[in-house]
Design a protein that fits this description.
Strand order of the largest sheet: 1-2-4-5-8-7
Low-confidence stretches: 1-18, 23-56
Shape: globular
Mean pLDDT: 81
Distance between the termini: 42 Å
Order of helices and strands: HHEEEHEEHEEEH
Radius of gyration: 18 Å
Structural class: alpha+beta
Number of strands: 8
Largest sheet: 6 strands, antiparallel
Amino acid sequence: MLLRRVLATWWSPTWRPSRRWRPAWALAAFAVLTLAGYGTYLVSAGGQQGVAAAEQPAAAIVLRELTSRADDPRPLTAAEVFPGPVVVAGPEGHTYRVLRVQALDRCAVAADGGVVVLLEAAGCSQVVRATLRSPDGFYVVTAGLLNLADAAGAQAVHGGIRSVLDAGNGRLRGLPAGPGTGALARDKTQLGWHVRGHFLAYAVIARSDGGKIYPEDPDARQILSDLIEQYLHTRVLDRRAAS
């Protein structure tokens, strides 16, 4: 069975995950992050350099728009996106262990069905993805970046994914990486995604025990926000935009 839109799934009031690493504000802070079948565009706040020792204001870092591969031709690499054995992300500095990293110039490996058609139409040239384990080991996640030809194509993919999922005609796929990650290849996953310039950042999340993730699961929402917004958008793509 293909991935279904999360709003169509049912919620069991008797099931409440309790993860020690979840801060009390998780529900409010990540309520804007939806799961399968609905992409989000989370806005990242900008910043400036501090004041120099001589009390002269330092020059602000100018971030490029990353609007197309023509203006941003340098290919993504595994070392750029997932350079170490862990990813530290989120306001609380949650640590995700990296289990497997994959960088390919065949975007179809990261999707199936109608999503493959969307990626091909948008000129997808690369996928760099990794499978990670959550801090408490309860979840596994495949997170990554898709390198599209331009921002217009990325926006088309962003909007098209929801329609494909609603119709049950395709999905973005997880990357199994050994014991406890097999659920990433099945239908009990949830999905989040957003665009930045000509890149689409996404994450597919599953429970390590293969159980179902419910729409109101605050831990899943937090993980998606940590990896998509706080890590791939704010850290990886901001660093590329500043280079």
